[in-house]
Amino acid sequence: MKFGPVSIDEAEGAVLAHATAAGEKRFRKAHRLSREDVAALKAAGVGEVVAAVLDQHDLGEDAAAAKIAAAMSHRNIEVKPAATGRVNLHAGASGVFTVDAGMIDAINAVDPAITIATLAQHAPVEKGQMVATVKIIPFAVAASLVDSVVRICAGREIFAANAYRPITVGVIQTVLPGVKPSVLDKTLRVTEARLARSGGRLAAERRTPHEIAPVAAAATQLARDNDMVVIFGASAMSDFADVVPAAIERAGGTVVRAGMPVDPGNLLVLGTLDGKRVVGAPGCARSPKENGFDWVLDRLVAGLEVTARDIAGMGVGGLLMEIPSRPQPREPAPQPARSALKVDIVLLAAGRSSRMGGPNKLLALFDGEPLVRRTARRALGSKAASTIVVTGHQRERVRSALGGLEVKLADNPDFADGLASSLKAGIAKVAPDAAGAMIVLGDMPGVSSRDLDSLIDAFRRSGGHAVVRASHQGKRGNPVLLPRSLFAAVAQLEGDTGARHLVEAEGLDVIDVEIGQGASIDVDTREALEGAGGVLQD
């Protein structure tokens, strides 16, 4: 592949490195130029473009990423379609992620053009969560390099989402004088919540004196009737011959490991009894905060073997005191109602109206009111918490048209670079407690406050996790409401790429809401604007 300036006479089949305009027609970054495209560029006076020229042994970025992903062997993994040189892979089940780090390192060592990134080994994952991404850096890569990666992938599982199993757990709590029943009751609630996240169930509880014999007897009974036994000692283990490890051995079981290099969680005991796992929980497991008990419990519930060597290897990364790395079960607390999920509107009003041939369409009058003000007023009349207007081209005139409205303003000095710059400027102003942002185009006169409310209502019913799009007769349109989980991806957009790319690339649930013709009416041309009832202003 060759990259750099290319004469327009030799540009057919080349892949554009930057968005390029040919009069009113605009070609996006990564667009492959056809003969007709080259003719249009010539007619517009373009003599040279910056592009990538592929040779016969190259694979385009999407084809290369898709071929690598197809060569991988994995379990409970869903592969998304290739887009912009990237293939994202998502967990097909909630569980624990495992990965062959040697294979990942070998792939990344083939050539910097080919990359793969994954979650950490043994990371807990939820169904639908992204666990890995294959990314081709340039627009194309030599087929021989892709073949090298395919050979590395052959014959071995590269990663998996090891699904949680719905196990039953029996709990033993030992009692000493002074131990409050309320502490024991709280321990049960916290344990039930821990098990619930992985589909497990606390099936039985026994409370015994803090002595070897009664603990051994209770463990024998619970191991017979359940998949796992967890023992909470009233006193922390202070020796490897203390009550909990000694009780496991008295019952005829084996202590696999006592003590672990994870803090909090040092005093965990792991054993087996009648083919069942027995875990002596450290005192910190009475709290919902992450600790070493979570690491062992998740792996066991996901059906993974946990050996003494595995526990000994948990020291690197095992200092958890100040590292809240994932959500944990909490004691019941008030949760915001879905109806209270906050949505901000980002109104895009920075464009140059290039297809109008001069006038700014956002200042066109509809019933005597500038279009941008009309759109902002309808946004303010919706259920959205606030409205952020992104300005750029003719910013002072646009802001003047908004005078007196309680909108927030976001300036985009890079508006000429394309849509992505305006999206980023607007999302950066969204309130930290907003669950989502609705992207509203300033040039859609047919969208009402009621239409915006329909999108917000659908977003709230989804729990704030889905992308919500306006549609008309089954065809996607605008506005689009993005959940907060996509905000980081917006910050990575470039050029004239918009929200549609994110919706297609990230693989989130998409809800289409029929709002009528307004979803598909914009006013990019004089004819369209005047047909919609607008009057252009010079």
TrEMBL record:
Keywords: Magnesium. Gene3D superfamilies: MoaB/Mog-like domain, Spore Coat Polysaccharide Biosynthesis Protein SpsA, Chain A. Pfam families: NTP_transf_3 (PF12804). The keyword Cell division does not apply. Residues 346-505 form the MobA-like NTP transferase domain. The keyword Magnesium applies. InterPro entries: Bifunc_Mopterin-bd, MoaB/Mog-like_dom_sf, MobA-like_NTP_Trfase, Nucleotide-diphossugar_trans. It comes from the Bacteria. PANTHER family: MOLYBDENUM COFACTOR CYTIDYLYLTRANSFERASE. This is Molybdopterin-binding/glycosyltransferase family 2 protein. It comes from Mesorhizobium vachelliae.
